């Protein structure tokens, strides 16, 4: 509703804030995996923005947001690699923490498989329907 109710000028002012999370959500994860509710929401918002702004302008903005996202990822990766050289003790400690997290996640998964731990409850379809009602356009 927000995107539909905004004028083009107002939308251009806030699109720089709205677009990066949408691009990030759509670019991460497996394309073949079933889409989560957040990914579906991002997809719908992206389509509404595309209709409102126009294909060419939207494409340019998405490419720009994707570039900034990739630059930030590369910078984080570079910092971690530099840490391995400059501070190997800290890097080793981080690596051990990551291993421990993976170990705990695997343990929880196995406990859930064997029925020792209750599974996380999935959201009901009713909750998702509310989101659909909120996102409907008055077209």
Automatic annotation (TrEMBL):
Coiled-coil stretches: none
Composition bias, Basic residues: 92-107
Annotated spans, Disordered: 82-139
Domain of life assignment: Eukaryota
Gene Ontology cellular component list: 90S preribosome; small-subunit processome
Bias (Basic and acidic residues): 82-91
InterPro entries: SSU_processome_comp_20, UTP20_C
Domain U3 small nucleolar RNA-associated protein 20 C-terminal: 10-111
PANTHER family the UniProt entry points to: SMALL SUBUNIT PROCESSOME COMPONENT 20 HOMOLOG (PTHR17695:SF11)
Protein name stated in the entry: U3 small nucleolar RNA-associated protein 20 C-terminal domain-containing protein
Organism, scientific name: Pectinophora gossypiella
